[in-house]
Automatic annotation (TrEMBL):
<comment type="similarity">
    <text>Belongs to the LDH/MDH superfamily. MDH type 1 family.</text>
</comment>
<protein>
    <recommendedName>
        <fullName>Malate dehydrogenase</fullName>
        <ecNumber>1.1.1.37</ecNumber>
    </recommendedName>
</protein>
<dbReference type="Pfam" id="PF00056">
    <property type="entry name" value="Ldh_1_N"/>
</dbReference>
<feature type="domain" description="Lactate/malate dehydrogenase C-terminal">
    <location>
        <begin position="200"/>
        <end position="363"/>
    </location>
</feature>
<keyword id="KW-0520">NAD</keyword>
<dbReference type="Pfam" id="PF02866">
    <property type="entry name" value="Ldh_1_C"/>
</dbReference>
<dbReference type="InterPro" id="IPR001236">
    <property type="entry name" value="Lactate/malate_DH_N"/>
</dbReference>
<dbReference type="InterPro" id="IPR001557">
    <property type="entry name" value="L-lactate/malate_DH"/>
</dbReference>
<keyword id="KW-0816">Tricarboxylic acid cycle</keyword>
<comment type="subunit">
    <text>Homodimer.</text>
</comment>
<dbReference type="InterPro" id="IPR001252">
    <property type="entry name" value="Malate_DH_AS"/>
</dbReference>
<dbReference type="InterPro" id="IPR010097">
    <property type="entry name" value="Malate_DH_type1"/>
</dbReference>
<keyword id="KW-0560">Oxidoreductase</keyword>
<dbReference type="InterPro" id="IPR022383">
    <property type="entry name" value="Lactate/malate_DH_C"/>
</dbReference>
<feature type="domain" description="Lactate/malate dehydrogenase N-terminal">
    <location>
        <begin position="56"/>
        <end position="198"/>
    </location>
</feature>
<dbReference type="InterPro" id="IPR036291">
    <property type="entry name" value="NAD(P)-bd_dom_sf"/>
</dbReference>
<dbReference type="InterPro" id="IPR015955">
    <property type="entry name" value="Lactate_DH/Glyco_Ohase_4_C"/>
</dbReference>
Length: 366
């Protein structure tokens, strides 16, 4: 009797220990851990035990220069309950590292295309910084050949596994990758223009910073709408609409417009071959993702700039301020009154944008 009780207690302890080990290892989601569906720790259980109430977010390209700080900042976001980190390299290490942070979100890693479906299933928001960045002397368009294919594959995964998720697309050239994603979703029959958002927040973040410097203000008090697209002359800061209302000399306008349009190149050259903006981009991506999540939660008055399907100009996509709500970009705002300098800039921006959009559409329909 005594030995039988001991044996039962021993087995119970062993089961508990196995369950504990499985729970600790769950975030890694690696095939070499042999995590079977029949395991005591199914994904749903893990989510219920570890997760705080909130949204499920996936980052595709999570081990990259942007992906890693972005993943860390999203792990710190109280609106996130589950964070899936997908990449074709190094996602287990990034996941193990971030999983030790004592924040509410449960973090899990996914490695390689065969795990893309698991990474995406059930997600509310998918953030895509996957792809190659610029080196000195390159334009964003030079990245097209590699990144177009990556974005196509990942968006096919989204269409299959989480067709109702909001997509934040960061991979460059955004002016072409957003049209690519739209065509992929159209082909799959899942396209909802409200849910596809090209991330241009870094242009706004830079504009706020540079304008604040010129005005001698705290950048947190400044808001500059930046419209058009996300490359060179397609980046059009509307300095006439800066808040708080401010005026600029022609020299200041020229300096600020050039610096905002070339902010990315400034970083690429300073990094001298080691990539493009990653830390400020991760900050900007989280600012935007957080706004999307607050919109999904039903908060009122969430307005950010983004590159979206649009009827503001004759082009099918254009970046302007949009209102984010439960279903994505629920309202796309008009440009508002432009001064002569901005009207001239708009014409230049539209000309270049038209070609970039067409290039993206043609890539899918070739
Ligand atoms: N929208 C913006 O404002 C903005 C700003 C800066 C950079 N970017 C762009 O973001 C992208 C990423 O930049 P980065 O500096 O993080 O580059 P990076 O090379 O450091 O990281 C990219 C990551 O993507 C991963 N990856 C490649 N192919 C993949 C695939 N098929 N599936 C999943 N992951 C894949 C890589 O393994 C890598 O970890 C680039 O295209 C860059 O131009 C956009």
């Amino acid at each position: 009797m005594f030995y039988e009780t001991l044996a039962i207690a021993g087995r119970k302890k062993e089961t508990e220990a196995n369950q504990r080990i499985a729970r600790i290892a769950a975030h890694l989601q690696l095939s070499n851990l042999q995590m079977e569906e029949s395991s005591a720790l199914r994904r749903a259980e893990c989510r219920a035990k570890g997760g705080s109430p909130g949204f499920k977010v996936a980052i595709l390209g999570a081990a990259g220069g942007i992906g890693q700080p972005l993943a860390m900042l999203m792990k710190m976001n109280p609106l996130v309950s589950v964070l899936h980190l997908y990449d074709v390299v190094n996602s287990p290490g990034v996941t193990a590292d971030l999983s030790h942070m004592d924040t509410g979100a449960v973090v899990r890693g996914f490695l390689g295309q065969q795990q893309l479906e698991s990474a995406l299933t059930g997600m509310d928001l998918v953030i895509i910084p996957a792809g190659v960045p610029r080196k000195p002397g390159m334009t964003r368009d030079d990245l097209f050949n590699i990144n177009a294919g990556i974005v196509k594959t990942l968006c096919e995964g989204v269409a299959k596994s989480c067709p109702n998720a909001i997509v934040n697309l960061i991979s460059n050239p955004v002016n072409s990758t957003v049209p690519i994603a739209a065509e992929v979703f159209k082909k799959a029959g899942t396209y909802d223009p409200k849910r596809l958002l090209g991330v241009t927040t870094l242009d706004v973040v830079r504009a706020n910073t540079f304008v604040a410097e010129v005005l001698g203000l705290d950048p947190r008090e400044v808001n500059v709408p930046v419209v058009g697209g996300h490359a060179g002359v397609t980046i059009l800061p509307l300095l006439s609409q800066v808040k708080p209302p401010s005026s600029f000399t022609p020299e200041e306008t020229e300096y600020l417009t050039n610096r905002i349009q070339n902010g990315g190149t400034e970083v690429v050259e300073a990094k001298a071959g080691a990539g493009s903006a990653t830390l400020s981009m991760a900050y900007a991506a989280v600012k935007f993702a957080d706004a999307c999540l607050r919109g999904l939660r039903g908060d009122a008055g969430i307005v950010e700039c983004a590159f979206v399907a649009s009827q503001v100009t004759e082009l099918p996509f254009f970046a302007t301020e949009v209102r984010l709500g439960r279903t994505g970009a629920e309202e796309v705002f008009q440009l508002g009154p432009l001064n002569e300098y901005e009207r001239f800039g708009l014409e230049k921006a539209k000309k270049e944008l038209a070609g970039s959009i067409q290039k993206g559409v043609a890539f899918i329909n070739k």
